[in-house]
Amino acid sequence: MTSRAVTPRVLEAPARAGKGVGVFPSATAMVWTGEGHAHEAVAVPGVRLSPGDVLVEIELATVCGSDVHTVLGHRSAPTPLILGHEQVGRVIALGQGGAKTTDGHRVSLGERIVWSVSVPCGRCVRCRRGLGQKCVNLQRYGHERMRRGWELSGGFATHAHVLAGTPMVAVPDDVPATVLAPASCATATVAAAIEAAAEITVLDGAVVVVTGAGMLGLTATAMATEAGAHVVVTDPVDERRETAFEFGAEAVADPRVAPDAPGGLATAITRAGGRGVACTVGLDMSGSPAAVRTLLSTVDVGGVIVLVRSLTSGADVPLDPDVLVRRLLTVRGVHDYAPRHLEQAARFLVEARSRYPFAEQVTRILPLADVDEALALAASGVGPRVAVSPRM
């Protein structure tokens, strides 16, 4: 494969504030200017680090489904924009006073870290309620318009400017980047979903149905299995269902066939030890309205349904209050996560990497300059994750 040469155009120097840090050769960001346009390489020769900021050299960034949705025009985004919010890298510069990880560890130069997709202010009413991921003044990596003073705001770049207040977690040097990069989105989000379910019912011994076997679904399968659950995975793609077994699924189902037929959901639940055709927990990782309707009709009395992927706008998913009341059902929504979930995600990946094939789920790694090709491959469904590397 031949890489497209990177020919950056240079931005003006940052405003005179904070600690100036030059990068040589210049940091390069792949900038998206709107639907139908190819990414442009932009050189950022220096940044200004405010107190508590961190400059990170990115090792690897994976393509998330939301990146694909953005470039396809399925979700609005301000431009110009540096996409990417799943990455791992090493600290190469610190703002005045340095920075700390979520557990209070002082970050050092050369340390390998992952960081949250969100930057909460820590002061607003939502932050004070413990909902920093929904901060009134929230900033999000890979989602904000490229601007003066925060040019390196996304993962599809050689470097990232990590702002003060961003939850960060140190990670070991011996864990592959392909394992760690998804921690800041897919893995941490699943950690939040597992916690949301566990707050309602005990997972140990429970039958859990996971709808969708992409990166989120496979991660949820492994995490629920580690919690002692009997996991059933449903997905219309044969290959994905087979992969689910490698992540701990006890049974799989094809949503295209009748529930009580061979390969159907009811049959799979029975195989996993469910009571009749019911499960205790439903985790939707697909975003499919049909999957949510299935969970609403499948989860047993006193059970919980956790919705992680947002539904298609305008999707018709009837929610009968009588069913919720009589069956004592709980329906919870999870979007992003708290700092503790990033800690849990990193710890889980480090400890479980030998038990589950997370590294193999990054099926292609392309040079950073070929980010458009990486996005196209991700959109085509080539594996749970495609990645870009500044080092290629």
* Overall number of domains: 2
Segments where pLDDT lies below 50 for 5+ residues? 1-16
Mean pLDDT: 92
Q: How would you spell out the order of helices and strands?
A: EEEEHEEEHEEEHHEHEHEHEHEHEHEHE
Structural class: alpha/beta
Please write the CATH class name of the largest domain.
Alpha Beta
Q: What is the architecture of the largest domain at the second tier of CATH?
A: Alpha-Beta Complex
Tally of strands? 18
Largest pleated sheet: 7 strands, mixed
Count, helices: 11
Helix content: 10-25%
CATH topology of the largest domain: Quinone Oxidoreductase, Chain A, domain 1
Give the percentage of residues in beta strands.
Answer: 25-35%
Distance between the termini: 12 Å
Overall shape: it is globular
Q: Which radius of gyration do the C-alpha atoms yield? A: 21 Å
Give me the CATH superfamily of the largest domain.
Answer: Medium-chain alcohol dehydrogenases, catalytic domain
GO molecular function: alcohol dehydrogenase (NAD+) activity; metal ion binding
EC number: 1.1.1.1
Enzyme class: oxidoreductase
Family: Belongs to the zinc-containing alcohol dehydrogenase family.
Describe the structure.
By secondary structure, the chain is of the alpha/beta class. It folds into 2 domains: 9-176 and 353-384, Medium-chain alcohol dehydrogenases, catalytic domain (Quinone Oxidoreductase, Chain A, domain 1, Alpha-Beta Complex), CATH 3.90.180.10; 187-333, Rossmann fold. The protein contains 11 helices and 18 strands. The chain has helices at 65-71, 125-128, 177-180, 186-198, 215-226, 238-246, 265-271, 289-298, 321-326, 339-352, 371-379, and strands at 9-10, 19-31, 40-49, 54-62, 86-94, 112-115, 118-119, 139-140, 159-162, 168-170, 207-211, 230-234, 251-253, 279-284, 299-307, 330-333, 362-367, 385-389. Strands 4, 5, 6, 9, 10, 17 and 18 form a 7-stranded mixed β-sheet that branches. A 6-stranded parallel β-sheet has the order 13-12-11-14-15-16, sandwiched between helices. Strands 1-3-2 form a 3-stranded mixed β-sheet, with no helix packed on it. Helix 1 crosses helix 11 and helix 4 (186-198) packs across helix 10 (339-352). Keywords: Metal-binding, NAD, Oxidoreductase, Zinc. Residues 216-350 form the Alcohol dehydrogenase-like C-terminal domain. Its cofactor is Zn(2+). This is alcohol dehydrogenase. One of its GO terms (cellular component) is cytoplasm.
